[in-house]
Design goal:
Low-confidence stretches: none
Distance between the termini: 54 Å
Mean pLDDT: 94
Helix content: 40-55%
Shape: globular
Length: about 325
Amino acid sequence: MTRFNQSLVDIDPAAETARIVEFLRRNVRREMKRRGAVVGISGGIDSAVVLALAVRAFGAGNVVAVMMPDRDSDPISETLARELASVFGVEPVLEDITQALEGFDCYRRRDDAIRRVYPGYDAAKGYKAKIVLPADLLEAGTFNIYSVTVVTPDGREETRPLGAREMLEIVAASNLKQRSRMSTLYFHAEARQFAVVGTSNKNEHAQGFFVKHGDGGVDIQTIAHLFKTQVYQLSRHLGVPESIQRRTPTTDTYSAPCDQQEFFFRLPFSMLDPIWFAAENRIPAGEVARGMGMPEVQVQRVFDDIEGKRRTTEYLRLSPPILEPAKPAYA
């Protein structure tokens, strides 16, 4: 039996690139009969790697890269997305979805829920907000209960617990962003007979950090089998710009800056991924603790958090149930 160590999540980037490129070509061209790929790019590492893989699979002329900011987006996202597209020879398409979201009442619905918790919140006056999970997973093993952090115009931050109703409404309103983006991607795909290529990694797909019929609504998943740290390994092999490789993974959904660790994963990927690998391969917590240099109780808390998220988000990964036809009387 192989002793546990963090390098167990390392991959052969060249071999994995060849495997994914063949997977894309076989499924998109031969099975789906689509001519190319549409990829939403955000200036993040996942969409950067997927764009690079799509260009290898289909050629730059058969790949459409779509930038879809809204009024809450960090301007650096578009800057990095344009740099990425330039590196891989793709002319990016800009689709600002702010007006679509205003039509859906996305911002009003979200802000109304925030004001029930923080009455002085006013986006028009420069207030910003994000929702976050407790940061003390290793110390306390606390539940995944969200709070809202409000940033005032003078830069002060105040965090208040969210009730279930407010949390659900904020998330539901925010999910309109991902669903608007996916509708936009399908316009570009259907107008060209292309496939929409997904950018969710394993951390997001298996733990439920995606929106059903939003960023989860794609024709093919490209990197959903790869841990985030493995995506970074591919990015170096594929020549993704250093500026994107160095960027802290962010949701880029809320008006206040919010990275993926504070919003959902609660741990750095360098710690989360090898522990998750161990959980999947039934490596005892004690052995993992020795390999990670941390107490066994903390490893078990991570095991429990991963399994809890996987279990509670299972419905996101289910296909819609279809009732079988009733058997005719003569059967």
